[in-house]
Amino acid sequence: MSRWPVQGLTAAVFALAGLIFVTSANTAKGTDIRTDSSLLKLSDLIQQRSDNNAELDESTASVRADIDTLARRDDGSTRAEDAELDALEKAAGTTKVTGEALSVTLNDAPPDATAKPGYPEPQPNDLVIHQQDLQAVVNALWQGGARGIQVMDQRLISTSAVRCVGNTLILQGRVYSPPYKVTAVGDREDLRQALDGSTAIQNYQLYVKAYGLGWKVEEDDKLTLPGYSGTVDLHYAQPVE
């Protein structure tokens, strides 16, 4: 048997090994090879879109104010019709509301959180705020007679959806990280009673006690919530022809 085929095979093996080493080096480049830079780029894109949406919201609010001013200047309506329109705008959340208020702030547990005596060691999901926690607070405040609710810096309307992806909140096209603040204008005693009577919030309080999740309630004698300034157009799926 000739030695040349064996030598050729050996050379091919070494060439393949060298290619693997070069590929690995180019991939790692001195950093953690498990780091997915595409995720970082996606995070940057989401934040950029969130900032753009915030700017568009401000522009929309300014234009809407100009339109409202022009419409009210000489719209030919009666006082009764104007009063009915004002009531509808308040119910829709597009105008500011002022009164005594109550605010609730929720936050993730500290990074070094451990279980208090008598409780099992926490799982990762036990230490972060979830969508159900925010929804429980919002629902309780509505039930307590809130005349208006704001989550972070945005006023809620009937089509607002409080959604969490991972440990971030996505609300009306913008992205937020904890701590999350929910503010309601209404009778403070009624609002507190609604919070205390919520079964979902009582369950959340167990995690506050066991693992140190954040929970803070504050009161204001007088606070003004701005009106909703975003689009009110409905977006829905359409069948493909």
From TrEMBL:
InterPro entries noted in UniProt: DUF881 (IPR010273)
TM region(s), chain numbering: none
Family (UniProt): Belongs to the UPF0749 family.
Protein name, UniProt field: DUF881 domain-containing protein
Organism: Streptomyces mutomycini
Biological classification of the source: Bacteria, Bacillati, Actinomycetota, Actinomycetes, Kitasatosporales
